[in-house]
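Hello,

Our lab assistant flagged a job as stuck in the queue for most of the afternoon. It eventually completed. Since we weren't sure the result was trustworthy after the delay, we are filing this so someone can double-check. Below is the sequence as submitted and the structure that was eventually returned. Let us know if re-running is recommended.
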Amino acid sequence: MNEQLDRFETIKIATQYWHGDSKTATLIIIIFILTFVILLLSGFLLQRYLKSKNAKAFFIRFAKNRKLTDREIEILWEYAQKMERDPMLVLEFKAPFEKVIDLYVKSDPNADENLIRDMRKKLDFMVHSPYVPLITTKDIEIFQGGRMIVDNRAIDVALYDKDERYMYWLVVNDDLPDTVVPGDPAKVIFIRKDDGIYTITLPITEIIREEGRTLVKLPHTFELYRTQRREYPRIKIDQPVQVELLDWEGQDGRVFQGRFRDIGAGGGRICFEKVEEPLKKLHFGDTLLLRFTLLGTPFQLKFKVLEKDISPKSLCLRGTFVDIDESVQNEIMEFVQRELLRMAQLNRQKSTP
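-- returned structure --
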């Protein structure tokens, strides 16, 4: 009983003291709020640190599975963080990888080009499909021909060499106008047969004249203007297709069920809802055997993989038909044209009041 009275008296005295000094009360409130904010902020920072630490540990394990060295892993992690990009995407897709590497090259004057090439090889970014649009001028093939417009003149050029910072275009007929100097804009136009027409406009870094040849040195860029080129029109469809692997790691005869998402006389796009391991391992150039039906007509065609697109819930392959007879190609073309006409008629009916 006496103990309870003592506590009551203590609270009473504290209350009297609280009300008796407004400055002290204000100070106590401020200290309490600051303490709460500090604890809240500390918890947030600790959580963020632990999350980052776990993310980096996962990134390192994944990168080591790709045989990357410690230095290569650290470079990709560091510059992905500087660009505020997901480091995992850097390991999986070429576009974010090239963006990160570009920052590394521009930031470090001693950037190791052999190390960069090693990373590209390990991540399978060296081989670039002739059907897949270019991401950067670093992907332009050596000896690619084109036209360079300088000082209101068009001259023939070919890509002679390239490194991580610059590309060197050879003036084929050595007819570069004498009035052209470093700093002048140069527009290069070239055609990739199975892809499109590209245009880049860049300032000339240097003009190199040596051993009877003239080279125009240009910086690399991601700014490529592309015009689509496709030999045959395609139509969006949702059609079942059986996909059989051919001559691929002992998987001959294994059949997967997919669906055509678009098709044309030259090729199409096939998607799979179930992402199985053999499909994930397909690469550019692998050949598949397709069995499908269009308007009651069965088809059995070989299909060369040009591009693979993986998401958590699906996998899609874009490719071209190979060894296709002209009569079969005409049948598919007729199907596409018929579908295009049908869609045009439906659109007209919808628009008619």
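-- support follow-up --
The delay was a queue issue, not a problem with the job. The result is valid. Residues 100 and 340 are 42 Å apart (CA to CA). Residues 22-65 form the longest helix (44 residues).
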